Amino acid sequence: xxxxxxxxxxxxAHGLVARGVIGMRRSSDHVIVLGAxxxxxxxxxxxxxxxxxxxxxxxDALPPPGQHRKGVPQGRHxxxxxxxxxxxxxELFTGFTAxxxxxxxxxxxVLADARWQFSGYLLRQRHAGxxxxxxxxxxLEGHLRERVFGLSRxxxxxxxxxxxxxxxxxxxxxxxxxxxxxxxNLTAIDADLVVDxxxxxxxxxxxxxxxxxxxxxxxxxxxxxxxxxxxxxLRPGAMGSDHLILTTGTLANPRFGALAATEGGxxxxxxxxxxxxxxxxxxxxxxxxxxxxxxxxxxxxxAGAEPLDAPVRFRFPVSTRNRYERLREFPAGLLVTGDAVCxxxxxxxxGMTVAAMQALALRRYVTADRAAAPPRFFKDIARVIDVPxxxxxxxxxxxxxVPGPRSAKVRLVNAYLPKLHAAAADxxxxxxxxxxxxxxxxxxxxxxxxxxxxxxxxxxxxxxARHGP
Length: 469
Ligand SMILES: Cc1cc2nc3c(=O)[nH]c(=O)nc-3n(C[C@H](O)[C@H](O)[C@H](O)COP(=O)(O)OP(=O)(O)OC[C@H]3O[C@@H](n4cnc5c(N)ncnc54)[C@H](O)[C@@H]3O)c2cc1C
What we know:
The chain is of the alpha+beta class. The chain folds into three domains: 16-73 and 143-217 and 323-394, FAD/NAD(P)-binding domain (3-Layer(bba) Sandwich), CATH 3.50.50; 76-138 and 221-317, D-Amino Acid Oxidase, Chain A, domain 2, CATH 3.30.9; 404-467, no CATH class. Helices cover 35% and strands 23% of the residues. It has 13 helices and 20 strands. The chain has helices at 3-19, 38-47, 83-92, 96-102, 137-149, 204-210, 283-291, 297-302, 351-367, 374-396, 408-424, 428-438, 450-467; strands at 30-34, 53-57, 80-81, 106-109, 114-118, 121-122, 131-134, 154-157, 161-168, 173-180, 186-190, 193-196, 218-233, 244-247, 255-262, 266-273, 306-307, 312-322, 334-336, 342-343. Strands 5, 6, 13, 14, 15, 16, 17, 18 and 20 form a nine-stranded mixed β-sheet that branches. Strands 8-2-1-12-19 form a five-stranded parallel β-sheet. A hairpin with a 7-residue loop joins strand 14 and strand 15. Helix 2 runs parallel beside helix 5 (137-149), helix 3 packs across helix 9 (351-367) and helix 11 (408-424) crosses helix 13. It is globular. It starts with a helix and ends with a helix. Mean pLDDT is 92; it is low at 1-27. It binds flavin-adenine dinucleotide. Flavin-adenine dinucleotide binds at residues 34-40, 57-60, 71-72, 74, 77-81, 161-162, 197-201, 227, 314, 316, 338-340, 346, 349-353, 355.
């Protein structure tokens, strides 16, 4: 075989790998995970079962559990973990819930111990048998980090930034990453696989373009979301036996808020507004904002509470979804996960659960016979992302101020949801179905099944008879 023909065969083979037509087994030696936040840690946990060495590269210095860090600014705002995410963490880290609960996190039933208020209605509370976790984000992430860093195959390069990828064979295959150490020295680190978990600011689209690949289409919904959060010590019994109150905005009053128990007997209150209607960070403006939420539960719970810090803000201008699953070609040896793929309005607190579900997809991918064909992974996680993206973005599009096309499905669902919320105020079965969908335990289509439609209709007729139009 002459050299140009063998080069031609080599290129064809790589083309097929890049398109996901064939897979490629690797030496399973070394993997680099970019970013040591939730998605990166969970990816590292999975990969430690399949690779000899896992190196996590993280820009920040990593503090002990409970302390904030620069690379996760959202960490100052309320973070709850849905039952599905908690189950996955318990599967990946034996006894995780028990450990963090012993350390101070609050484990509570997702419906019996939580007041969910949608469209101005309080979902009927009942035991769901689904425990969720409430703790500050730095606490949860810190405990996760301790578990992952305790794995013998995992090492971490702290205060090191990833500045680019290494590629071979005319960019058809990623072979490592270029990393800048705290002194600014550049090192090339070889790897069989690189996993980008650097969050919303991920540079993979730019790196793909530099390697000569197409950049993924990015779906964007401009919501102009602003958050402000503050930590309190509440009066004893101020929330009754509940651990969470979540009030979403209504069309007439698109402000929302959530108050949740967190470790150390504290509570965190996060307020939000869309389309530039940001909650203020001065104490008086902050109090005015929560007093004007669609329901008075949060204001009543916070009355007389001792503030433990000053309100802090966060801006989330746009929900983004990079459509990696639609690319025809993608270099072997590279994957992307977590917020780096998709990041949406966090009102329903789904991001960490989605990252955990993507970690399971990563496990499917690295254990499959046809490992190393990235398009398969992206198609798999697209199915994971579809549901929370549709839930969050669909709900945002209910507000006329949010720009963007509304499909017939979005319009229909947004017309139906307030009726479902009204009926679920009296019907605990509907309430349970709804929190199961929001918590990513069940698919949303369930809520449109004949049994649910009938209950919604009956519930609304009963309400009409009781309260009039
Ligand atoms: C205000 C707010 C509230 C939220 N509330 C909830 C909630 O209640 N429940 C929930 O489940 N989710 C919530 N989320 C979503 C959740 O925070 C994310 O989905 C989750 O953290 C997964 O993010 P990630 O790990 O992909 O990225 P990130 O958390 O953004 O982490 C990216 C990591 O990469 C590092 N990094 C970045 N660039 C580089 C580089 N070049 N080199 C090396 N390291 C780098 C960063 O320092 C960071 O550690 C919320 C989000 C926001 C914005």
